[in-house]
Amino acid sequence: MKCPFCGYMETKVLDSRPTEDNTSIRRRRECLSCQKRFTTYENVEDIPVYVIKKDGTREPFNKRKILNGILKSCEKRAISLVEIEALVDNIEKHIYNTMEQEIESSLIGELVMQRLKELDDVAYVRFASVYRQFKDINTFMNELTKLLKEK
């Protein structure tokens, strides 16, 4: 394992334990050169899933993109990183459980919005405004009205 700090190729494992959901192994490591510690996760390699984007191009599924989008929409909200990571893990699990090798980006966006709506209304509206590309204030108000009716 390559040290992320100094690039040295040898480390020792200090601690190994399964994650809470038992889907991966968390390893605490120490670099044999600089003695800095870092954490790695060992996961079972899944069948690659490709995302079909709006323009028809395909790219490998990347849960970091979902995480980054949700982090932006949850900025300055009382939502913990643990809750956000659980939400992203839930979406990822849903995608892999479909057993499809290709999934449309629109389906991923809808999954994110559905989960965010359950978590936080403001984060939901922020994400929806970017995802649905609200063109004007009327489109934005329509979405808010729908949200208020559901509550």
UniProtKB/TrEMBL annotation:
This is Transcriptional repressor NrdR. Negatively regulates transcription of bacterial ribonucleotide reductase nrd genes and operons by binding to NrdR-boxes. GO terms for molecular function: ATP binding; DNA binding; zinc ion binding. Signal peptide: none annotated. Pfam families: ATP-cone (PF03477), Zn_ribbon_NrdR (PF22811). Residues 49-139 form the ATP-cone domain. GO terms for biological process: negative regulation of DNA-templated transcription. A zinc finger (unnamed) spans 3-34. PANTHER family: TRANSCRIPTIONAL REPRESSOR NRDR. Belongs to the NrdR family. Keywords: ATP-binding, DNA-binding, Metal-binding, Nucleotide-binding, Repressor, Transcription, Transcription regulation, Zinc, Zinc-finger. Its cofactor is Zn(2+). Binds 1 zinc ion.
